[in-house]
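note to self: dont lose this again. the chain is below, predicted strucutre after it. 325 aa total, dont forget to put it in the shared folder this time
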Amino acid sequence: MGKNDKPTTSQMSEMDGPGWTFLWWMLTSVFIPISIPYLVYKIFYSKTTKYKLQGKVVLITGASSGLGEALAHSFYKAGCKVILTARREKELARVKNDLLSLHPTVPTYPPVALLLDISKLEDIPKYVSEVLAIHKNVDILVNNAGISYRGDVMSTKLEVDEQVMAVNYFGTVALTKALLPQMVEGNGGHIVAVSSVQGRIAVPHRSAYAASKHALQAFFDSLRAELAGSNVKVTVVSPGYIKTNLSLNAVTGSGEVYGEMDETTASGYSPEMVANKIVVSVAKQKNEVVIAPLSARIGIGLRTVLPSLYFRIMERRAAKAAKKK
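---
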């Protein structure tokens, strides 16, 4: 039918037939009455669920920028007693001051900022003692601190693998173990591990990073099972690419700073959106949450159901990357 043509009598009768009448009835009588209240409920529920965390003591590692900073804002706005930790004193102070300048709709508590290099395992017991002296307990531990990596296996120094593993895995494990007893003895707590989609599926030129996140996934899956009889919950978060400086600060195979913003990172999710989803997931006490586009979710599924196909896809990805060099 042309742009200016009017429908014929037969076409009008077809559109007014039983099929169209039934579809119109379904739309107006079923879908709209159900979908509108559902959407309103989802929006309201996501905004109010996180306020169940009000008054909880939340310790966030890597809180001086990126996702950690966004998490600090989101937990603070939920009325939590936020403890900020990171290595960079100036940036940590900035985040703290930014929080104090906010005016949330719920009662808030002054945030605490403490310096911590998660890779220095010997300092963690002393640090935990300082934390517990302030708030007596930690209700929610958010293991967010991490370092990324870019390089191929053959040219990557072993020291780089150790560095990435020390920050992303051993530091997180050490801090978790140091705080776990007070959670178990206090009969309550929540441990969050910010992993990555690459903790579920490995991709070329991310071996050290993917290995550290795979280890993180396995450790916290084991811990969750062991804590089943307690009131301590474990949530593993697997985000896709987030628009932060993670790739800029990534370490290369030689140990130098990568210093480039990857296209995938630049077009990633906003840290604020990811942080809000994490806070809601903690409030809902989810075991794990994947915050990633459909392509990443398909990749996770393929690795499980059709691993041979997944391997071929990764081989092509590696070959494509090699041609660009």
